[in-house]
UniProtKB/TrEMBL annotation:
Cellular location(s): Vacuole membrane
Record field: catalytic activity: Fe(2+)(in) = Fe(2+)(out)
TM helices/strands, residue ranges: 31-52, 58-82
Keyword match Manganese: no
GO annotations of cellular component type: vacuolar membrane
Highest taxon, organism lineage: Eukaryota
Broad class of where this protein is predominantly found: membrane
Family the entry assigns: Belongs to the CCC1 family.
Membrane topology: Multi-pass membrane protein
UniProt xrefs under Pfam families: VIT1 (PF01988)
Any one biological process term the GO annotation gives: intracellular manganese ion homeostasis
Identification of the protein by name: Vacuolar iron transporter
Length: 112
């Protein structure tokens, strides 16, 4: 009887308990990587062009073109990474569901 009460009270506590996790880790990581790439390469390009005695308009135009190209590249890269990760998670979920179904009591198949 006491065991039943304890398990019921534990169930009640578990239902009430919610953990708060930091969920923005991937976003913070992406921002740090993009900012470091987005600032380093244009400055290096501008420095290289200024050493080559290019005019100011060429340096500014090349810098803007590089920033736009870098933004497109990073955006596409981030999209492809997120899409492939989502596909992988869906395939894993499907595989786990099939494994659970195949290992139910009474089934003779075993999980592989």
């Amino acid at each position: 009887m006491a065991q039943n009460r304890r398990s019921e009270s534990e169930k009640s506590l578990l239902n009430q308990h919610t953990e708060k996790h930091f969920t923005a880790g991937d976003i913070v990581r992406d921002i740090i990587i993009c900012v470091s790439d987005g600032l380093t390469i244009p400055f290096a390009l501008a420095a290289g062009l200024s050493v080559a005695n290019a005019s100011s308009s060429i340096i500014i135009t090349a810098g803007i073109a590089e920033v736009v190209a870098g933004a497109i590249s990073m955006g596409l890269g981030g999209y492809l990474v997120a899409k492939s990760e989502a596909d992988h998670c869906m395939k894993e979920l499907k595989r786990e569901e099939e494994e659970i179904i195949s290992t139910k009591p009474g089934n003779k198949r075993s999980a592989t």
